[in-house]
Amino acid sequence: MGRLDGKIAIITGAAAGIGRATARRVAAEGARTVVADLNAAGAKEVAEAISSAGGEATAVQADLAEVDSVRAMVEAAVTAYGGLDILHNNAAATALAATKDLPVSAADPDVWDETMRVNLRGALVAIQAAVPHMIARGGGSVINTASGAGLTGDLRPPAYGASKAALVSLTRYAAAEFGKQGIRCNAISPGFIVIPDKPGRDAVHATMLRHALTPRLGRPEDIAALVVFLASDESAFITGQNICVDGGMLAHQPFLADFKTEWT
Q1: How far apart are CA 101 and CA 157, in angstroms?
Q2: pLDDT tens-digit profile of 74-104?
Q3: In the beta sheet, which residues pair with residue 183?
Q4: 73, 93, 94, 91: which is closest to 9 by C-alpha?
Q5: Which of 13, 14, 97, 261 falls between 20 and 30 A from 24, CA-CA?
Q6: pLDDT category, 260, cuts 50, 70, 90?
Q7: Predicted TM-score (pTM) of this structure
Q8: CA dist 15 to 27, 74, 115, 222, Å?
Q9: What 3-state DSSP class applies to 107?
Q10: Which residues touch 36 (CB under 8 Å, ≥6 apart)?
């Protein structure tokens, strides 16, 4: 018996990284899972891997920047499985953040708008489309992937960081509006997560590890584990929260790593 037996889930941005690990874990826990991503081939590959492992999954191409596409994604889940219990708003404009999301002084308003369309408006529309189906089944869980970038300042990417900060606020507003109808809404703010298919960042990893309080950096599976908990009935009294999964990165003074180097 899995922790999510009988539940129906949508995971966005599920073709790679955190989304892929989460879709596979949610399905392994018994949920019938819609693997949604702009990358249709990648979503199909993940869905097929889930099916090969004994789970039940459907791949759906979804563009979070397009309102109709988001709504169609939710309807595809309901059509395929008869309802919806779990929505993990995980997709984000990460490629845009990495290449075009410049410091505030040089920020491109068009990049800002596109980032907000995907990271924030896409989540809003998904919640609007999903919640009525959840209410019809007696309740549900919405889980938004925010970011440590939305909780602190940095040189870049400001649009990405601002969108994730706003997503945490949206989480609380959704929790407030729908809580009495059995809908819980929580956010997860990952810290530095090592994606296995993105090698060649050893120097960055070493720097990040100096500032973590744990002996290793984060993995996609760390986020997936929390998603399963927040999606399950075990977290029935948790809503409106933003939970950092960052190895303690934001739990200490910024100069701690320098002092620790001197002490050791």
Answers
A1: 5
A2: 999 999 999 999 999 999 999 999 999 999 9
A3: 140
A4: 73
A5: 97
A6: confident
A7: 0.95
A8: 14, 17, 19, 17
A9: coil
A10: 10, 11, 12, 13, 14, 43, 59, 60, 61, 62, 73, 91
Query: What ranges make up the beta strands (E) of 50-203?
Result: 57-61, 86-89, 140-145, 183-190
Cis before 103? omega within 30: no
Distance between alpha carbon 37 and the CA centroid of its chain, in Å?
12
Question: What is the C-alpha separation between 144 and 184, in angstroms, rounded?
Answer: 11
pLDDT at 200: 64
Distances (CA, A) of 9 to 89, 102, 103, 197, 241: 11, 35, 36, 25, 20
Mean pLDDT of the chain: 96
For the chain, counts of helices (H) and of strands (E): 10, 7
162 in helix, strand or coil? helix
DSSP SS3 for 252: coil
At 196, is the pLDDT very low, low, confident or very high (cuts 50, 70, 90)? confident
Q: How many CA atoms lie within 13 A of 264 on its CB side?
A: 7
| Residue 14 contacts residue 43 (beta carbons within 8 Å) | yes
Q: What residues are labeled active site?
A: 160
Largest CA distance in the chain: 60
φ and ψ at 179, to 5 degrees?
Answer: -60, -45
**Contact at 8 Å (CB) between 42 and 15?**
yes
